[in-house]
Amino acid sequence: MGGLNTPLQSSSAIEYLDDSEVRYPRYFNTLNHQVVAEKMNALECAEAGLVASSGMAAISAILFGLLGNGDHIVLTEGLYGGTHALIVNELKRFGIDYSFSAANAASLEAAVKPATRMVYLESPSNPLMTVVDLAAVSGFAKPRNIITVIDNTFASPILQNPLQLGFDLVMHSGTKYLGGHSDLICGTVNGSVELVKKARDHLVNYGGCLNAQDCHLLERSLKTLEIRVTRQSNNAEIIAHRLDQDDRIGRVHYPGLENHPGHAIAARQMAGFGGMLSFELADNIDPETYLRRLQLVNCAISLGGVETTICQPIATSHQKVSEQERQRLGITGSLLRLSVGIEDVDDIAADLLQALA
Ligand SMILES: Cc1ncc(COP(=O)(O)O)c(C=O)c1O
Predict the structure, then answer these.
(1) Whose CA is nearest to atom 10 of ligand 1?
(2) Are residues 150 and 158 in contact, defined by beta-carbon separation less than 8 angstroms?
(3) 25-222 topology per CATH
(4) Torsion over CA of 63, 253, 289 and 245, rounded to 10 degrees?
């Protein structure tokens, strides 16, 4: 009694006679699910929330719980590779039509058709850090009853609250900043009671619940989310400027740099520019040699953990996107994606620069 942490309730069989509802882990209504979902509601200023078994489960719950045969969805180009693969491999099998548009509000609006039921985007996006004006998107979508959905993984709820800017649903790969210690995989959905119920009902049928232990770990991680993200964002801003000043590095993609096309929008709608950035190596530097020379920075897939990690998107997050599509989007072999951790910023920067030598 009196412990500061929610007790871990690992039972899959729960007594029901004296309870107001039948509880079962796959129904997302056990103690550990509810506590962590409520914390996410508070963080995303939402009425309701759902904690799922992965970011992809959360995205699937939204797409298949809210869209059906004959509906159309508009998505921004340059989404996370797994999301892109889900769209192109699965949607048409269920009679859902889709269009990709350039990642800005005007192009999204121009791509809307009479059957469009949803607009889906990432901002900042993975891996090119494209920023979309969220208030402008919700502004054209709302009067047309189009549901607006954002993958808010890169910003985290600390730096961006899309529901406050008129969006209907916000999802996270909780595997990243929410978990923050590279030791769990989960996803979250937040929004109105009505929309979250539709996503949940779908996922109850398909199965995609998070186990109690990972709910418990996620709840522990949320306690330090603000401290971690603030430090990561401050570190990333310093590193982006240092990389930008080095001639051996091509373009640096970071919304906090004044030369970033989305800088003014990001400054308006985010409380910080985030812990993610990407940069291009000069042509004479072989990416794999560079990655192998790093000593502090870990060459690993995933992101958002307390340790700094780096990866080559064409070999990891975007390996499922066709070569032709990657070239068109500017996701080249020399592009590296950096997830800045909480280490001493001078140590991180020194490692990134020594490996260029
Ligand atoms: C932006 C973004 N959205 C969604 C996902 C999918 O999340 P998960 O791997 O937790 O299913 C990822 C994974 O890397 C991601 O980077």
Answers:
(1) 55
(2) no
(3) Aspartate Aminotransferase; domain 2 (3.40.640)
(4) -170
Nearest atom within ligand 1 for CA of residue 58: 11
Testing ligand 1's pocket by substitution, the residue of 59, 63, 121, 126 carrying the most ligand atoms inside 8 A of its CB is 126
> What ranges do the domains of the chain cover?
25-222, 225-354
Q: Which of 54, 56, 185, 316 to mutate to test the pocket of ligand 1 (most atoms within 8 A of CB)?
A: 56
Query: Which CATH superfamily is 225-354 part of?
Result: Aspartate Aminotransferase, domain 1 (3.90.1150.10)
* H helical segments located in the chain: 31-43, 55-66, 81-90, 105-110, 134-141, 156-159, 193-206, 212-222, 225-244, 263-269, 287-293, 323-329, 345-354
CB of residue 179 inside a 6 A radius of ligand 1: no
Q: What is the pLDDT of residues 112-171, one digit of tens each?
A: 999 999 999 999 998 999 999 999 999 999 999 999 999 999 999 999 999 999 999 999
- pLDDT at residue number 320: 79
